[in-house]
Amino acid sequence: MEQRYSNLLDEALGLDQTIEPWPLRGRIVAIEDQVETSGSFVLHHLLKRALSPNSSNVSIFIAFSQPFSHYDRVLRKLGCNLVTQRDNKRFFFFDMLKLQCPGGDGGITPEGGLIALYGKIHETISVLPEISRKNVTIIIDDLSLMEVAANGSSDYVLDFLHYCRTLTSEFGCSLVTLNHEDIYASADRPTFLLQMEYLADILIKAEPLATGLATDVHGQLTVMNKGINYGQDSSRNKISNFHFKVKENIVECFYPGSRG
Amino acid sequence: MAESICRVLRDGALEGEHAPALTIKDSIASPFGFHVFSHVLSQLSSFLFAGKSQSRGLVIVSFSRSPSFYLELLKSKGIEVVSSDKRIQILDCYSDPLGWKDRLIEAGSFTALSHESSVSSTAIVFKNVKYMDKLYNSIIELGRGLVGGGKNRFSVAIDSVDEMLRHASMSSVASLLSNLRSHDQVSSVFWSLHSDLHEDRVTSVLEYLSSMVASLEPLHEPANGQRGDLEKFSLIEHNAKKGKFHARFKRRNGRVRLMSEEVRIEQSGINLTSLSSEGAVNQGLAPKVQFNLQLSEKELIDRANVVLPFEHQGNGKPIQIYDGRRSLVDSKQERPVAVTEKVQTNEDSGRGEIIYFRDSDDEMPDSDEDPDDDLDI
């Protein structure tokens, strides 16, 4: 039943056919959302697909936004048990809510904190068995809160993201990030947001409809799949746009106008 | 046109002159800068390996891609780099630009797994990207290692000046690029940059430092305004695989040459064709509706024939401002008072006419007189 509805999103990401080997290997997915249209559901959906029993994918979740119990509750409704996955060493949860970087007064500096985080991720991947090492998804929720944790220094966050990117080329992991577009929209030059957009192989934007609020449609998703890799299949380079409605246990994705 | 750029880089520097330098700049609306960079890199490498270029070696300073990416790229163009005849070296500023891995190893919390052993002979890892002087020295050292000393020259390709600008001041980056250009063993230099990540003056400085600027722009400008979702999406789709490629060449004699083409991103790289006409492009964007938005031939002629009321017709007659009280032709006839104004074209006379009924006959015609003149103060 779920397959029918989330199919548009899976199709846009290349997840509708087979998920083993993980189609997003070595790719960076950036999700941008706004206050009116939260993009967390895309994050949850990707996590759920990554932890599917048909896949050998391992997920490393770096949470700045919510505690473990929140994600556990959400994923349970989607039919995925995070506690079991954690026990089976398929799901690693890094709780960053307690990370405080007081800014170099003898404690952890923002840079030091992020270096340590990178080290921890690298270590986690290195000790995985060979088969799983090639199939890791790193999820960050979310980048604006990471910037806050780093005392507002977007430079350190960008450095950290660069090192995460080296993980995608070193191990073939995929990186999924969530950021809020409207936080940076008022700046003259939303550099932090743009840097992420340049970095991303797949950019997913969750935006409200131009016509405003509606009961049947919560917003629209635009998926821009770049596929810059030379010598890979050309079907990757495409753009999709469709509407979505977030329900209790599922998100419905449909083309504009196909709903009464 | 991209071929002209590659030829200039291939031919290199003249004795006593600065090396030619190319800036490739793009923006998020048309992010094809790296595709162009890869294209130029592949072309220059082909010239190099065929012995047709002034430079005998190429140093790639990679910030945004791993060394193995470049080796794969060149391999796909038929250039095998891992061989005894080394002509390309990569200064790897990607794998560990800030030395974080070393710091973690010191702290004892890092197991380095070296997957890059196959490329270690072609790539040297650089861990101090905050220091432009060290970077400069490493580039020169690598280049000299490739071509030797004396009059032999090498080219330098920097895949992202953005990363350099993030780590170091603009003046130190500009000075590095300028020093590279003026080094007597450097044949040509090229780099790419995202113009929207920096202030305008930074982009300007880099453009001043270059003898050629290749800029990429979207085919259809995304205007900021109230646009429907479908329109916005259609624009994004149009701009996703195509764009405008502008090249500006600065000659030694001071003349500037500008060329423009349309660039298309394909599987194998970029494809440049001449720009399609603006009209065809714009018509494709007009909304498709059920009524006719265009004017027919007859309508165009009639519109041209309309006599505008206050316009000098150029036939020597004095201008008579029509005040609606009497017609221009027949001054005896009284016009009936009309409640509303009417504007219509009279097609029977074969020329257009504008008929204007004033609201009330009692009103004085407009004039230059001071309306307060009749006050008796």
TrEMBL record, chain A:
Record-linked PANTHER family: ELONGATOR COMPLEX PROTEIN 6 (PTHR16184)
Family: Belongs to the ELP6 family.
Ranges in coiled-coil conformation: none
CDD domains given in the database record: Elp6
GO-annotated biological processes: auxin polar transport; negative regulation of anthocyanin metabolic process; positive regulation of cell population proliferation; regulation of leaf development; response to oxidative stress; root morphogenesis; shoot system morphogenesis; tRNA wobble uridine modification
Pfam families: ELP6 (PF09807)
Pathway annotation: tRNA modification; 5-methoxycarbonylmethyl-2-thiouridine-tRNA biosynthesis
Lineage summary: Eukaryota, Viridiplantae, Streptophyta, Embryophyta, Tracheophyta
Origin species: Corchorus capsularis (Jute)
GO cellular component entries: elongator holoenzyme complex
Name of this protein: Elongator complex protein 6
From TrEMBL, chain B:
Predominant location: cytoplasm
Residue ranges, compositional bias (Acidic residues): 360-377
Species: Corchorus capsularis (Jute)
Family to which the UniProt record says this protein belongs: Belongs to the ELP5 family.
Compartments reported by the entry: Cytoplasm; Nucleus
Pathway membership, UniProt: tRNA modification; 5-methoxycarbonylmethyl-2-thiouridine-tRNA biosynthesis
Keyword NAD included in the entry's annotation: no
Amino acid composition bias (Basic and acidic residues), ranges on this chain: 344-359
InterPro entries from the UniProt entry: Elp5, P-loop_NTPase
Signal peptide: none
Sequence segments annotated as region (Disordered): 338-377
Record-level Gene Ontology MF annotations: tRNA binding
Claim: Nucleus is one of the keywords in the record: yes
GO annotation terms (biological process): tRNA wobble uridine modification
The entry's keywords: Cytoplasm, Nucleus, tRNA processing
Domain of life: Eukaryota
Name assigned to this protein: Elongator complex protein 5
One Gene Ontology cellular component annotation held by this UniProt entry: nucleus
